[in-house]
Amino acid sequence: MKDKVRDWFGFGPMTQGFGGHGHDHGDGGHGHTHGVIDPTIATTTRGIWAIKWSFVVLAITAALQLVVVFLSGSVALLADTIHNVGDAATAIPLWIAFVLARRKPSKTFTYGLGRVEDLAGIVIVLIILFSAVVAGYEAIDRLINPRPITFLGWVAIAGLIGFIGNEAVAVFRIRVGREINSAALIADGYHARTDGFTSLAVVLGAIGVWLGFPLADPIVGLLITVAIFAIVWQSSKAVLTRMLDGVEPGIIDEIHHAAEHVSGIGRVESVQARWIGHRLHADVAISVPEMATAKDVLGVSEALKEELFAHLPALAEANVRLVSPAGSAVTGAETSHAHHHAPEPFKVACDLAEGTLEIVDTAAGERMRLTIDRHADDLTATVIIDRPNGPETLRLQPVADNHHRLESTVAPAEPHEFQARLILLAKGREQVLPFKMVEPEGHHH
Q1: Over the stretch 356-408, which tens digit does the pLDDT of each residue have?
Q2: DSSP 3-state assignment of 325?
Q3: Is the Cβ–Cβ distance between 363 and 382 less than 8 Å?
Q4: What's the CA dihedral at 238, 110, 311, 99 to 10 degrees?
């Protein structure tokens, strides 16, 4: 019961939904359902719904407090009201961000517009900062130029209204934010909770004035200002972490945990993850035993992807790539491009696909690219290069969702003269196409 109460008020584990190990593996299930609705649309729709009702509650709270401010002249209540008005205004950039995040990816914004949520976070921080400056100015002015306060009972009631309104919004935002894995919404929920306690400070200020200490009201106003500045600092750190592609450490741990459920993985060589809005993107590099076949490699990759999506509900995209155990031969993106002399392309012609396989220079470095003129549905392609120290495996993936251009995520190791196989899979059928690449005469390593 205690845990349920803590979770209801938002003090449960912050990793809920994306970093915990609270799932049951005993029967192979992971406790989630698969719906037919696009999860991105579903989560953003729920986010918009949460922001809309938060805005309504805070707007009503601020309006009621504003009436008492004009009647009483309380600067502490004014500071609290200004802050609540600012909180209500934060709903506007968040609402815009959630609406824009629903747009499908385009040729320009290939990942969609999820990053708009990070920009909304910056705007929210600036709104909170502005409210802190205004509240601080009014409190200092009242200390220098004291004025009498009236309707102390109504001031106290207005403070209680501020607490109740903010706590209701806090519980609502935190719970919905965890459901949809929105860091901005969760952070705004905790911000609303802090605001609730600052509203209670207004009640203490009213009591202090009633007991004969008139400076209690502007002093409480200054304390509220300090609390607002603390929120600015905390919120800015969280938003900037996301903008710099920072993630919670629990997410990386969960990716490693998911890999433990997949047999056939020799080792997880590296893990990278980042948030785009409230959707997670992960890149995992693994190595497999040398005796693994191409079919085994593809099976391991698909199994790991399934585990990642099962363990991380917020995961939108998982890229699994294969590297050598040492990592240096295959992940040689740092190899100099100045000496790249592409071998002759390999012409692909079989039942599953027709096209050209070649080594090309890209903005990210050298890549193995398969340009397809015709292909079977659900085609996957893998290149396995015979190397003296073991096979080098390069899985080719669509570039910007273009299924007619498949590229490796890393550069093929030097030298670019080798015997290799192109493995094509589609609808349960497999075709192995041996080929050889030879560097131009005079450019051998």
Answers
A1: 999 988 767 788 999 888 888 888 999 999 988 889 999 998 876 677 889 99
A2: coil
A3: no
A4: 60
